[in-house]
Design a protein that fits this description.
Elements lengths: L3 E6 L12 E5 L10 E3 L3 E3 L2 E6 L5 H6 L9 E6 L11 E7 L4 H4 L2 H6 L3 E8 L16 E6 L6 E2 L3 H7 L5 E5 L2 H15 L12 E4 L15 E3 L4 E3 H4 L2 E3 L5
Parallel strand pairs: 7-8, 7-11, 8-9, 9-10, 11-12
Antiparallel strand pairs: 1-5, 2-3, 2-6, 4-5, 12-15, 13-14
């Protein structure tokens, strides 16, 4: 489709990267643009990482798309705290809005290697915005929904979540603030058996939808109010328990 994958071989001196962590990449041969671009791996194989996205929506990827194979990159990282999936979490549910989905893809290979199950739910505006199924291993159960009803289920993923959430051991999510707020309410209404729709910590994690201009906590542009204090997403996150977001 309109997406592009960039595979990068990192030197051995780099620390191991975990799904949900990010790299700061200088996407230009000069100091224009000045700021590095935060890129999340969609695949991690030792010191080889792959970044996937749509160049038209990410000026960093747009520049990378013009570079020939073998280009040396100015790259720092990995930064932040990623997703935490326990070996006993046999059924993994990944839920995302299409533009935010690539970081979740990095969770798939390790889960399948443990003989675990993976269900991926992606919501998009149109069919053209969805992740191509060819990006996914055949063992992944992939469901989609589009706002214009051009593909997948109608409108939203709510109906799919009704049957997926009860048997899920761990949920990992990524999307805009309104999307995560809606997901949080949905999860709480299904997973909580008490009199109030309160989501309990430990079941769901999400990537905070905040800018990451510096990656080191200096600019304070990535502050997240967790309800128990304000934290810098590039240091404390960018992955938080879903109870701490929205």
């Amino acid at each position: 489709g309109s997406g592009m994958a960039v595979r990068v071989q990192l030197p051995a001196r780099f620390q191991p990267c975990h799904p949900g962590q990010f790299f700061m990449v200088r996407c230009g041969a000069t100091w224009t643009p000045y700021l590095r671009r935060p890129l999340f791996p969609s695949s991690i194989e030792g010191h080889t990482v792959t970044f996937w996205g749509i160049p038209a929506r990410n000026d960093g990827l747009e520049w990378l798309a013009t570079q020939p194979e073998g280009t040396h990159l100015d790259i720092l990282g990995p930064f932040g705290k990623g997703f935490s999936v326990h070996v006993h979490d046999r059924h993994l549910l990944l839920v995302a809005e299409a533009p935010w989905a690539p970081p979740l893809l990095a969770l798939i290979s390790a889960q399948l290697a443990r003989q675990g199950g993976v269900v991926l739910l992606v919501e998009a505006a149109t069919a053209a915005d969805l992740l191509p199924p060819a990006l996914l291993p055949p063992a992944v159960e992939y469901h989609t929904a589009t706002a214009d009803r051009s593909a997948g289920h109608d409108d939203t993923l709510d109906a799919i979540l009704d049957w997926a959430l009860p048997w899920t051991d761990k949920l990992c999510a990524a999307g805009s603030a309104p999307f995560l707020h809606r997901l949080k309410r949905k999860v709480a209404s299904i997973r909580n058996a008490g009199p109030t729709d309160t989501l309990h910590a430990g079941f769901a994690q999400a990537l905070a939808p905040v800018p990451l201009p510096c990656g080191v906590g200096a600019c304070l542009a990535c502050l997240v109010d967790t309800g128990r204090g304000t934290h810098r997403a590039c240091q404390r996150g960018p992955v938080f328990d879903l109870t701490e977001l929205g």
